[in-house]
Amino acid sequence: MSEATWDVQDGAIVERPRNVRKHPLLDRIYERHDELIAEQLPAGRTLEIAFGQHMHPQADIGLEGWPSNAETVHKPAIAGDARTLPFADDAFDAVVGRRFLHHVPPADRPEILRETARVLRPGGRVALLEGTPGLYRKLTKGVAFRLGLLAEDTDIYGHLSEDAVTDLVSESFEIAEKRTLGSPLMLASISESDASARLLDLYERTQFVKWWTFVVGERPDSVV
Ligand SMILES: C[S@@+](CC[C@H](N)C(=O)[O-])C[C@H]1O[C@@H](n2cnc3c(N)ncnc32)[C@H](O)[C@@H]1O
């Protein structure tokens, strides 16, 4: 059963997400994503927005809308809202944000990208990962709910298409990288059994099924 508890704050869905470490395949996938993100980020001071229960190894500090998530990571973290970042201009070299834009009302999302650009230095980079909508996600989630593997659906705003994520990022950044990440094995990632971790190789070879969109933006010299 999912452990998630959640609330809506100023329209944003804040929550205690699933503990990734209890789901061996998902845990390995997160590690893989950490590597892909690290390849794209400049070294230096790094912020992760809406880290949930997992912060990138390069992150120096995290910001979360569900304050007690800070207790689950062994890094400095503060409670806050991604729409008004409590940091100075040019404070970071890199910002990471995974699976959270879809938790914020669509009208507020451009402000998150503007805020991210503001706290990044020129040439700094943002790496975003967002769930992709579609029939495969619908079917997978449907099966997971039916099997009782997921308790509640907090995705009340739906997910963002690849184009929607790219358009949002390109309003404030130059696109440095864009790719699809995914696999028909995502249902197996819900399993808490160790056997599921052995599917990682197969996961790597089946990225053609869209599950996430990965977009990296580079901050231009001046921001709007
Ligand atoms: C689906 S979880 C993803 C967590 C984590 N990034 C991951 O990939 O596992 C979405 C997270 O976004 C956080 N969140 C939602 N809206 C937020 C906001 N406006 N500011 C900060 N955090 C927010 C929630 O509390 C939740 O932890």
TrEMBL record:
An example Gene Ontology molecular-function term: S-adenosylmethionine-dependent methyltransferase activity
Domain of life: Archaea
InterPro entries: Methyltransf_11 (IPR013216), SAM-dependent_MTases_sf (IPR029063)
Pfam family, one: Methyltransf_11
Ranges of residues in domain Methyltransferase type: 77-127
Gene3D superfamilies linked to this entry: Vaccinia Virus protein VP39
Protein known as: Methyltransferase type 11 domain-containing protein
